[in-house]
Design brief:
mainly alpha, 66% helix, 73 residues, 3 helices
């Protein structure tokens, strides 16, 4: 049987780290919204392959998301 363990952590950041984290959060949110709009225009597709092919480059270029975040959308 698999067991899942979760942890809730509080980040103690400098102001510069906080700003960088916040920019990433906002870019991720904006990327999610862009993928949602794209999926709707494609007939409400939920195909991961179609979404990846259609949006990966856009997410990297326009939203400056690292590849791991772009793939997870």
């Amino acid at each position: 049987m698999k067991q899942m363990i979760s942890a809730k952590l509080k980040l103690h950041t400098t102001q510069q780290q906080f700003q960088a984290l916040r920019r990433t959060q906002l870019a991720y949110r904006d990327g999610l919204n862009a993928v949602s709009r794209y999926a709707y225009k494609q007939g409400k597709t939920s195909s991961n392959q179609k979404l990846h092919q259609g949006m990966y480059t856009v997410l990297r270029r326009d939203y400056h998301l690292p590849s791991q975040l772009a793939c997870s959308l």
